[in-house]
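Changelog-adjacent note: as of this version, every example in the card shows the full chain rather than a window. The one below runs 145 residues end to end.
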Amino acid sequence: MADESTQSIVIDATPEEIVAVIADFDAYPEWANGVKRTEVLETREDGRAAQVRFNIDQGPIKDEYVLAYDEWSTERISWRLVKGQMQKSQEGSYALAPKGGSTEVTYTLSVQLVVPMIGLFRRKAEKMIMDTALKELKRRVENAG
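Full-length structure tokens:
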């Protein structure tokens, strides 16, 4: 597996409120940068998504991929790539740690593309993706209340 990148942000909300936004895949096109369409393909017994298809269009980057969600809790959400066009592998997670009335969200991501990319550029791209995703998640959660 490729090297991981990790980044954190503090969101003024409970872990439950944050998980509710993360789990609402139908709403991603409204707030997640580049996400044009999502489709829950399979659900778990608890009603949470087990597999989700994403259609991404961010200028030069267009992709369709399916993620399997292996873990859903108020402490941790994790996923892995099932299939993709531009990605060979992806593993990611959100770790949620309550901090008073807020929650620290730590996003860990590892992506390998079909086309090899120099490690420095890949890590820079992962950092940009994570930074954007965390800021958008924070905005969505804090403005929902």
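Structural remarks: The helical segments are 15-23, 28-31, 119-144.
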